[in-house]
## 1
Amino acid sequence: MINPLFGAVDNYICDLVAPEDEALEATIQSIETSGIPSISVSAVQGKFLQVLAKLCNAKKILEIGTLAGYSTIWMARALRPGGKLITLEYESKHAEIAEKNIALAGLSDKVEVRVGKALDILPKLVEENAGPFDMIFIDADKLPYAEYFQWALKLSWPGTLIVADNVIREGKVLDENESDEMVVGVKRFNKLLAETKEVTACIMQTIGAKEHDGIALAVVN
Ligand code: SAH
Ligand code: DHB
Ligand code: MG
């Protein structure tokens, strides 16, 4: 944490507008007890995703990168009646834990966890005509972020909101010589985002309970 004030303010915001219920608390607990990486979005970011999903009037949401289902639960709760969220996860262990958390949240009928490499599943979603999605959240491995964005565009329609997490990486994106593949991946993504005329896009820095990072938002024109 750069400055403890950012964490304290995040707690203040969280207590006000993003308190966790039992299912979300259990999801965080499941990450701790199973020893999977503690890289979910923060509570305030989860609530932000929920607000965005509401703003999209979302009936169909796609998520790339499930982990334990924490962001999944926040977003699925914003679905319109009869809506559906599909979330893609490579690690079967993560997917199993997520299924349990999603069930605990009472969302099993609205959420489908698909296990496999996102780059294998995304073409299948296109073939199946699973789209267009109203909101797409990219939050899996960082190296193929640009490819995920291109698939997201194929699964979109005008008004679709494409959100991508972790696109600033504590400012490491500024370093020309950075060889960390996560940073390389998000820099490629950020450049593609800027060059893509089919979207109106912005990147916001994020600071709070988690490390300094950023979130990209793109609306399909
Ligand atoms: N969105 C989650 C966090 C996701 S962490 C939340 O905020 O709660 C990133 C996840 O992407 C991890 O569970 C990881 O296993 C998964 N992942 C990594 N590579 C992947 C790939 N190629 N396809 C699908 N999922 C992948
Ligand atoms: C990592 C991935 C994430 O999605 C995140 O929010 C933070 C870190 C990672 O792989 O290190
Ligand atoms: Mg992330």
Note: The beta strands are 60-64, 84-89, 111-115, 135-138, 161-165, 199-206, 213-220.
## 2
Amino acid sequence: MGQEVVLIVEDNEMNQLLLCDALVAQGYRVLVSLSAEEGLAIAHREQPDLILMDIGLPGMDGIAALRRLKANPATRGIPVIAVTASAMRSERKEILAAGFDGYQAKPISVRDLWTEVRGIFDHRTGERRPKREDEA
Ligand code: MN
């Protein structure tokens, strides 16, 4: 079974470390970026299986970054989970309406994060099953 690669775009080093440790502990390979601009470049080049996107970032914010990812055929298919301190209902609504595939509120719950990440990969595995049987 291939090792899934997760790109973390997060400018807060404490949160970046927490997300990184939580994902590595579950066996995922992790790439990290401190800005949306760099994150977009890494996503394009490395084609991660999932992106965790902070909303509040220096320069381009996470919502603008998501729009660019979804507008580019090379990155459109990569699921993106928003990670944000914006727990207010109106902001959560705006974030999900922007097209994110999931949402994690800060402070991060490692258990909730694992559940959501696993859910996204289980879904993808299901979609890919016929191809895997052909390869086996
Ligand atoms: Mn931030």
Note: The two ends are 11 Å apart (CA to CA).
